[in-house]
Amino acid sequence: xxxxxxxxxxxxxxxxxxxxxxxxxxxxxxxxxxxxxxxxxxxxxxxxxxxxxxxxxxxxxxxxxxxxxxxxxxxxxxxxxxxxxxxxxxxxxxxxxxxxxxxxxxxxxxxxxxxxxxxxxxxxxxxxxxxxxxxxxxxxxxxxxxxxxxxxxxxxxxxxxxxxxxxxxxxxxxxxxxxxxxxxxxxxxxxxxxxxxxxxxxxxxxxxxxxxxxxxxxxxxxxxxxxxxxxxxxxxxxxxxxxxxxxxxxxxxxxxxxxxxxxxxxxxxxxxxxxxxxxxxxxxxxxxxxxxxxxxxxxxxxxxxxxxxxxxxxxxxxxxxxxxxxxxxxxxxxxxxxxxxxxxxxxxxxxxxxxxxxxxxxxxxxxxxxxxxxxxxxxxxxxxxxxx
Amino acid sequence: xxxxxxxxxxxxxxxxxxxxxxxxxxxxxxxxxxxxxxxxxxxxxxxxxxxxxxxxxxxxxxxxxxxxxxxxxxxxxxxxxxxxxxxxxxxxxxxxxxxxxxxxxxxxxxxxxxxxxxxxxxxxxxxxxxxxxxxxxxxxxxxxxxxxxxxxxxxxxxxx
Lengths: 388, 160
Description:
The structure holds two protein chains of two kinds. Chain A is of the alpha/beta class. Chain A has 13 helices and twelve strands.
């Protein structure tokens, strides 16, 4: 073929993580702290429900929006954790992971040329999904001095008369930052005034270590303009099941359902049955995992303190985002040398946006024993760099 | 902090105070005070080691014995339980609801010793009505720990 492929797709940058992945996979005894998924197995009772669904022959499509029973459980869950009520019949769509919800949510909202505000550092797919939806991404470079929270003046500066939607990625991957109620209140005021849509990606909502997570959709006048995205991957350690969901006003959900129906049909049936059990009987598992993550988070923060590595205290997800600015190297140089010299893989902050320069994403979805070895090596590495 | 502390210790009693303090986000003194309180209150009853004896050359035979007894006036099951648990070879005694009363776990070196214990010591106790002995053939999981488990990390090494 000589005819060129899609310009839009050709123009997308490949994920910055890929290069590291290739090097690390070649290395035999490397320790990786680069994983963005839980180290726990899916709790057994949830897996067992998946198996049972297969045994009973539940191997057909479900309705496009997802099993009625699952949508009911999602509705109950959002209501009991966030105090927001969504109708299981018209305001909830079960998707293939939160990632599908990001994609089709943007496609349902955007007209060509609309602007999507994306605070960074953040998850790698918002910008490409916005571009694929023919939007213009407008990046806000979040600041460490604000603990990577979105500030009202930063939002105001990014808004033009073309702004259509704000993506709100909290608790945040890669920084671990959260937005507390007061932070959200000041943002909500602008959103109402400027009449914006919000895509609130709350996939890490169950993993916070200060107060429990507050959704922006719980604030006055926000729910009716918001797509709330969540899923089972992080809270229930169900990444491979590929199951997420979107909650939004029925006008938006009905449009998203059209895209979902033509592109996907329905989310995996086995996963949906398992997820019903996760929501019904999984609270205790989530709490146990949250507690384990919190212990590891404290362990890492203490290790950084002892080696005098600057890092703001993150209260969400399972990442810490230490600064390596004192070493005068780029994040990528640091991460590459750390990998080559100490055989520990971390992800350069720049994989999540240019303003991630000078930072590393370290995941604590690893056992304490693993983290101990990695921190010994990090300590040795920074000591060596400081001596040079 | 108490519940979380106990949860950590239940899995790893050898963890040191400094690390405990870091994991719990409290001071070492607080950890120390809490642990001594827990010991004093009899909440922490011991710090044992989980041993997979099968991997050693030392022979051990374990049995679970269901025991039906007549409770004694004024003492219920406590008196008869005490008579049984005082034998050092008895590892555990539980009062059980259901078709029998006491569940006794026993550890000996040989099958014969277990048989002797049941016939000579246990069955001859006046309030013991009947016993049923089950020998343990293999341990798969004990104290929440899966024996012989090699966990491997099957995740991709780097994911966004």
